[in-house]
Amino acid sequence: MAHQAGSTFIEKTKYHHMDRSDQARGVPQPPLELPFDKEGTIIDLPRPRECASNPVDLRRAIEKRTSIRKYAQSSLSLSELSLLLWCTQGVKEVAYHSATFRTVPSAGARHALETYLLVNRVDGLRPGIYRFLAIEHKLIEIDTSADLADKVAEACFGQMFVKTSAVTFIWTAVPYRMTWRYGERGYRYLHLDAGHACQNLYLSAESIDCGVCAIAAFSDDHINPLVGIDGQEQFVIYVATVGKTP
């Protein structure tokens, strides 16, 4: 029955149900990053170390952490966006072409998330959907057609602050990057990784006078096509709006 899906998932992903993983079978690992069109519109991002931010006491940031749904009409600078991307999925090292070490933890350093952005107000960027190329620390333009903000808001069941945000983060999961090592249990770790990334977004946003609101309520079948993915080999796992606090 439908109401048993969650408990079935937990049961079937216990270790004693696991078969040998593809890694254990000697299957080559999937790429650390999804391929992209090198002839597409690629935007260089400012180096993270050069991004200005306010000093923030960690304890105070944690104590103040709350979801913010109302934003000022101010834009984010490209430098501020670069900082948020670095804090949530920044690649510190590519180790032997087999793993990436990033600013957030991930089971087995598999880092099975990709970051897409709905840009509404970021200096120097046209409104639209972009993908973050984490290893290169660049953006690639995906879609700048009209009404994308309306469509993403609708996919999030009419949560209109998606449209008033400066930028909305849309994290996707590439499950095979994780299940290659951990089998079906790896699906558990995808959700843990998404939580790590989103919490870093909340905390890092404090340093640039921004607020964040995480969104888990979205229609998978409507939001996946908006970022150009199939919903199986790659699917949206978490969403979060960001904007300057009023």
Name its key features:
seven-stranded antiparallel sheet; 246 residues; two-stranded antiparallel sheet; globular; 30% helix; alpha+beta; 8 helices; NADH Oxidase
Which CATH top level class fits? Answer: Alpha Beta
Whole-number tally of structural domains: 1
Radius of gyration (CA) equals: 18 Å
Helical run tally:
8
What is the fold-level CATH name, i.e. the topology?
Answer: NADH Oxidase
- What fraction of the residues are assigned to beta strands by DSSP? 15-25%
**Global morphology:** globular
What are the SSEs and their pairings?
Layout: H1 5-12, E1 42-44, H2 58-64, H3 78-89, E2 91-95, E3 99-102, E4 113-119, E5 128-133, E6 138-143, H4 148-155, H5 161-164, E7 167-173, H6 175-182, H7 186-205, E8 210-215, H8 220-226, E9 235-244
Antiparallel strand pairs: 1-6, 2-3, 4-5, 4-7, 5-6, 7-9, 8-9
Helix pairs in contact: 3-7, 4-8, 6-7
Commentary on this structure:
The structure is a single chain. This protein has 246 residues and is of the alpha+beta class. The chain has a single domain, classed as NADH Oxidase. The protein has eight helices and nine strands. The strands form two sheets. A seven-stranded antiparallel β-sheet has the order 1-6-5-4-7-9-8, sandwiched between helices. β4 and β5 form a beta hairpin. α3 packs antiparallel against α7, α4 packs antiparallel against α8 and α6 crosses α7. The protein is globular. The model has no long low-confidence stretch (mean pLDDT 96).
